[in-house]
Design brief:
Five copies of one chain form a homopentamer. Chain A has about 325 residues and is α+β, with helices and mostly antiparallel strands. The first copy, chain A, is built from nine helices and seven strands. Chains in contact: A-B, A-E, B-C, C-D, D-E.
Chain lengths: ~325, ~325, ~325, ~325, ~325
């Protein structure tokens, strides 16, 4: 149930244990990761580290926004880990940084946690303190936003290419809407994270060492970059939609014009043929020898005149 | 008329009384709830607790925005309790926190008040002080916003599914407008509440104990979360509307194309049939033996040519 | 020309006088109201109270925004009084608060001034100081915004009801535009007033007594409420317009579909009748006994096939 | 080339000189105005007053935004003077305020400079100091924005009246676009000027006397008023455009309905006439005596039925 | 691989070297420029100047936003150099300002670097310090944004002229979209640069000399000007698009009207001709001598009546 990482004299030991009963917090750093969805599942941790009631609530409340909360004994950080499936899935992740311990709670073990554990074991993390390990996790989680951005970028490129073409407009509109959803999901995860990392990098938190501030500031920069790109993409997508709608409207216009011109030219002609198709006994024109030719000529004049008129009005 | 809750030595007594005459404020905490719509109905309370004239006004003014007002002897908080009926109904709620008393005024007893009274009696509230009880009420009221959010979420899902389908567009537009109204109502209730809880959680109010600040901060977080979600949903709804309009416009386009093509192909053909339906005596073609076949062939060539032309223009 | 109010030992005397010549400022409070549109009309007052040149300008400049300007001897407040006629008429009102005097200048005596004078005479204003009287005027002027809000609310309700109905679209668009104009006028009057009352209620102005600050804060609350409602109504109106346009577009779509279907079914049929209406001598079909029935059958098959096709495409 | 104004013992002397060679700065105030478009044209002034290299750049850079720059020896103010021709022409104006001198540089002598010189000569400016004269110029320049606002107001009124009428839509769209351009030009000139006058009126600049701060604040008020009006007009214009587009769309709708109804009623009737216009030999109906009357009756029933159907659907 | 510039006693020496091995930092200023795309390519520089790990990352991360980062020994500035090809290409540029050294890293040597080196050699830069040289580079890079602005301006003028003409709407929409992309690219490069130069010009950085602050402030002014213009152009472009769409919609409207009128006039006439084209044996009208004339008269009356009706409805 729990993943337990213990650091002692720069040595790292990783165990999977079922209960925290009898666990001693005498290592240099003790990191416990647990997948939990209810407060009950965190009862052992709550007791062992005497966490505040509201901390426990925040750890399992999937709706909780990214934020940082400073308590006397620890710092609570909540964040969203994003997975790109058919839609974007946001996994809730809570990190509690204590002096000699680190607790991570998520509703599903994200790959980032496992990667940091491996890094730790492989000695890739030099300074084995709770705040350094927390930075690694946060950095990995924020880095997981970039593939999503890349995919959105690809989507935009595809949509952009097809926007002015005469492809199926409905699909473009749906694709655009889908891209917007992804951007909204990304924005929802990053906007509050901005404040979070700004707080962590400002350096008045005793549990974050001075040396790590610049690292937290680096993550902050990444978050700001993502927010920037999200806003740029949103504008781009809006522009594409407008361009597409304008193209659709133009195409409709063009089609209408052809209809108008063809209909308008033939309607009077058809009327004339109808006229001389009437069966009245007394229609003197019908007997005249040249009237058929005269009617054909009249039709030519009419259609020619209309073509000339439409040309001059710029409808052709 | 009044609900009276008295706490003495951790014991809770709840009464319904008709008049405050002779009431002594010697309990540890005295909590009076009253349903009032006019200043006159609050005259007894005003006299007993010597409230400011403007406080009384704020208590019964249903238009009053959520706010906190700090007086020498008490803190006045006004808030909106939301009920989800066919539309969202906003009930005005005023809470006055004194050192040893708590006054709640509403235009209709909300379920939240009753729930907190029961909690108090059942001993679920440990620290029986006026600010702790007030927190409970505020927390419950803000929690009442979430079912509304959930319902909006459901609405959005329904609208989203039908937006790109060929269902009745008018109903979608109305449903979207209705969802927007709900979002506006929710926003109207939560935006000012943000400042309110920010003030309460900042901890320079002598009537709010240090310990309770984090709880008020928790409510503040919830309010910010709701505001965030409201903004996200607003964008989502706008996106859906745009997608829907784009789908409608595309569908119209498609229909127009079919009309154009069919009309445009048949109009010249019909003209030709009219031509040879004319009753002139001298139309040499009529007597030629192969002219019927020739005309049929001509028609095929014309329609074939047009189909080819439309295909090449991408109208089919 | 001038309305003169003098308060001495809590007694109030109101006079209409033509000139300020020989007026002594020995009352507890001297309140002078004057209707003026040019700087010249204020010359007597300027001399008597030695007002700054720019103050005089602000008093008669109808374009002046609501603001507060603090001078050594007095505070200048400018505000808009709104009247609801066929459009909203904004009357400019200037209030000068001195230690023992109060000057009000407007381009037209608003009802609010008269009402406050009556209140003063009737003893409804307890604390007869210049800042208390000024509060009364400001409160009344801001209260005069609410009937306009109410009327806008009524307009919105009417427009909302007719937006999705098939009533005359042009009238709805005009009504919506008119409502927007009213909202803009209201916003123009209230936005700057927000800063004004914020300044007055902050309590670092020596001419405003501590006791009155809460009253000014109450007016500030009202102004913020109006701004809030104006923004909400603006969004609502935008939503209604969009819904209406969407309804119009949908209705057009529906009409187009019927046209398409009927035209498209009859156009080929009419072509066939034309075909056999031609007068060629050699059309073998014409002599066959069952060809009439066969043609009728063909037409039924064609129209049936098209109906089936349209049904499947969802156009019916 | 230079306009030279010298103030000595309250006496004003104005000269036009060609070179600054030998000019002594011993007057109470020396004001030099020069029309310059290149840095070279300012070389004499640069040497005489030892101006900073960047100051010279700002004086002739027509793209420079309105701003104030404080140097040890002088204050540099850049501003836009607006002229209303067929479009709005923005002239760049730089003002350098020194202790005993004033330099004004523009790419074209604006009327405002000449007016202030005349006022100075006519003794209309009491306090003849460089900051007072500068205030006069700034005040005049900002006042020159108001006629443009007035003209925009007139434009809006005209557009508004024609927006819902059936006048030429293209002209309205162009007029609206033109008005927007003017508003943008005005905004571009006033937005940065806001900060400029805010800085000047805040009173921590040693070269601006305390007494003049209220005058600079007055100009600031004017700028804020213009910004306010520009924003209001922008919204108004947007509203007009939307109303106009809605009117156009409605009118199109109305036309479409008439077309639909007339077409749809006549298309089946025309088909029937075609049917009995066919020349088959064996069409029994043709010989029946009452079939003509029966067909006429059928046509009436069909058209009546369709009219009834359309009426019920609300299309008439 | 490296461009090496050494300043000693005001003398400038420029070399192209392949390795930094054995390089002594004993010159007055040592400026090294390197084109690098990976951290590995910067290893020699990192070792020589002991740069922070994150600095190296920022130097080669092309996604890095413009920012300034202050370290104990140096200041890191990242910026975008823009090139106008078929689209805007943003080259990443990093500048590291040390006390006696300057390092510039880019993914491609921009012309601006070469120009500053030439200026340096030609003695055009008086104060040969690292911060002065850095200013030169930054100034040049920001100046490179102006030609792009100019091109956008040209684009807008072209689009504007064709927007209300009946040219190909699709091309206009694409051109507008392209212009928006350029504006977005420019905004992405300048928005963060604003903060950057604001920080550099505020003067609390020990490595930036007091004298240079005003120069950095000048660059800041340029950046703000570009941001201003970008916003103005964005609005202009939006306005053009709206005008264009409105023109398209109006033109469609006009075409529709002609179609409606011509169709609607001929449809009943054609029906009448069909009526008397029927082959019933018993149609008494057919034998009447004047019925042909009567029918012609009836048609004239019908078409005249419709023309009159359309005229009165304003459709002509």
């Amino acid at each position: 149930m729990y993943e337990l990482v213990r650091v002692e004299n720069d040595k790292v030991k990783i165990d999977g244990i079922d209960s925290l009963g009898g666990l001693k917090l005498d290592s240099d750093v003790t990191w416990i990761h647990v997948n939990a969805r209810t407060e009950a599942e965190l009862s052992e941790i709550t007791d062992l580290f005497s966490l505040h009631k509201l901390t426990i609530e925040d750890c399992v409340d999937r709706r909780q926004r990214p934020k940082v909360e400073v308590f006397d004994e620890y710092i609570l950080i909540t964040l969203k880990q994003l997975e790109l499936k058919s839609t974007i899935v946001a996994n809730h992740l809570a990190i509690i940084i204590g002096k000699k311990y680190l607790i991570t709670v998520s509703n599903k073990m994200p790959g980032e946690i496992a990667m940091v554990m491996e890094d730790l074991k492989a000695g890739k993390i030099m300074r084995k303190q709770s705040d350094s390990i927390a930075y690694r996790i946060l950095d990995r989680v924020v880095d997981s936003y970039f593939p999503i951005l890349d995919q959105i970028e690809d989507d935009i490129e595809i949509v952009e290419k097809s926007a002015t073409k005469k492809t199926d407009g409905k699909k473009i509109a749906e694709k655009i809407f889908e891209t917007r959803r992804k951007l909204l999901a990304l924005r929802k995860a990053t906007w509050p994270a901005r404040d979070l990392f700004s707080t962590l990098s400002k350096g008045d938190l005793p549990l974050i060492s001075k040396k790590n501030q610049i690292y937290y500031r680096d993550v902050y920069d990444h978050v700001v970059l993502i927010i920037d790109l999200v806003e740029t993409y949103r504008e781009l997508v809006s522009g594409i939609l407008e361009t597409h709608l304008s193209a659709v409207s133009n195409s409709l216009n063009e089609v209408m014009k052809v209809l108008t011109v063809i209909s308008t030219i033939f309607i009077p002609l058809t009327f004339i043929t109808g006229l001389y198709g009437m069966n009245f006994e007394f229609m003197p024109e019908l007997q005249w020898e040249y009237s058929y030719g005269a009617v054909l000529l009249l039709m030519m004049i009419i259609s020619g005149g209309m073509l000339f008129f439409f040309k001059r009005r710029g409808w052709l």
